[in-house]
Structures are given as C-alpha cells and as structure tokens.
Amino acid sequence: MSAVALQQDVEAGVERVRERVAGACERAGRDPASVTLVAVSKGQPAGAIAAAREAGIRHFGENRIQEAAPKIEEATAAGVEATWHLVGHLQSNKAKAAANAFDVVHSVDSARLLRRLDAAAPTPRDVLLQVNVAAEPQKEGVAPDEVEGLVAVARGAANLRLRGLMTIAPIAGHPEDVR
Description:
Elements: H1 3-28, E1 38-40, H2 46-54, E2 59-62, H3 65-77, E3 83-86, H4 95-101, E4 104-108, H5 111-120, E5 125-131, H6 147-155, E6 160-167, H7 175-178
Parallel strand pairs: 1-2, 2-3, 3-4, 4-5, 5-6
Helix pairs in contact: 1-2, 2-3, 4-5
C-alpha cells in the first residue's frame, strides 16, 4: 500500500472510531473531549503509527514490551511524538523495561509490581490498577476486594500517579447486565 493510500485508510478509520465515540458519549451525557482514544498499534509498522499520528492520534497502546520497545524507538527517531500505553499483562520482572518504555501502564495487578515500577521509573508514570471484576480465572487482575490495599500502595509511590482502574467486563448479551 502506498503512503498516500495508507494515510487515507488510517484517517478514515480514525474518523469512524471518533464518530462511534461521539455517539456513545452523547448517549451517556458525556463530553467526547473527556475521552482519550488509545490506538492499539500491536503488529503495526512505524509508518502506520506515523499515519495515525498525522490523523490526530496521540496515544498508542502496545501489549508486549519486547515488541513495543524497538517500535517506540523507531517512531521516536522518526519524530513521532506520542504517549505510549502498556495495555497487556506485565510481569514484575519486566517492570524496569516497562517503566523506561511506557508513559502509562494499564495492567498493574500487585503491590510488588507497583513497588518495582516506582523504583524503576525515571520520571513519574501514570498507572491503572487492573481489576478482574468477574473473577474469571483466564483473566489477569486483582479481585475487587483487594483494590483498596493496592490504592494505598499506589498513593505512597513517589514516581507513580494512580489514574484509575482498568477492567474487562465479562461478555454479556446486554451491557446493563455487567454494570
């Protein structure tokens, strides 16, 4: 695909997503400007990331550190300014690499991981606590009754800013069933 065709394709996709977000915000009585669109760039080359950046995307998500690190370096070298989010599961032994590569970590699920991220972060990092709201064994995250303790640990971290919770609801026929 040519660079022009790629840019047009990405712009059209971003516009479709923005329209859906605006519709959902209207139904919820929420300002669309209060929503941060994070484009998951897993498997995409730096050219596609640059095209998304040109289309107005400022936040990119990756789920694997090993895949993301060279991509982030390449995009940065190409002049792509972005906020990078780790959206996949993070093992505590990879906390240092994550703290150095990502601006936001969405998948914090233990006090140990919080402490390691805090110690490794070269500058303050945003984190979200991953909560397994449905107690599904195949999903990562802390149980809802453990959240309060993790919040206390996060609030005591010098280099971490707790920004919220990351949850994945179970699949249900009606959205109201999982609320």
